[in-house]
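job 3f2a | input accepted
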Amino acid sequence: MAAPVFYLIPGLGADERVFQFLRLQGEVHVLRWLPPQGPAELLPAYAARLAAAVPEGQACWLVGVSFGGVLALEVAQLRPLARVVLVSSFTGPAELPWLGWLARATGLYHLVPPQLLPRLPRVAQWFFGVKNGRDYELLRQILRDTDLPFTRWAIARLLQWPGRATPPAIRIHGTTDRLLPNGATHSQYPLPGGHLIIISRAAEISQILNKLAAATEASC
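job 3f2a | predicted structure (220 res):
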């Protein structure tokens, strides 16, 4: 029996560091962000470039965190054997909070400098629901290293994304997520915590992913 294959897609402004506490039983790859081909590149085109790292015809798991979940859904359109798991993510604009709807409708997000949160780490800590200690220090490091042009492009694409109803996705979401508070009601696996449960609840998420993969392998 072949070992499961996981492709992990980090969230907006993040990198492989958010996955460092996962313990997955199988082959693990992180799909690293690519520079956008201009400010107007659309998500399907970007996802097609990202999907080049996933062999066609390979059965695998696409695990996307936050904005990475959006890309996981787009990549899955091109890789029909992939199963999607969304962590702290969403499937369409109907799940955005009212502030997201306002930004989407008005375009006000263009006026918010993406370098704001790195300069206000305690504000970011509150939004992401991160506790002091290890998790907060990791958040500070990720914010410090954020690629600002990519962040600007991604926010625009994220807020204008029409959503994907298919393929069906398995969802893991924090019950006190302040960025995407509606996600927990759509989740099969609600976990205590905020937006960065991929860090704070890595043990539980690892267990969920390993069980899902094992159950799928057993049914094949």
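job 3f2a | The first strand starts at residue 5 and ends at 9.
job 3f2a | closed
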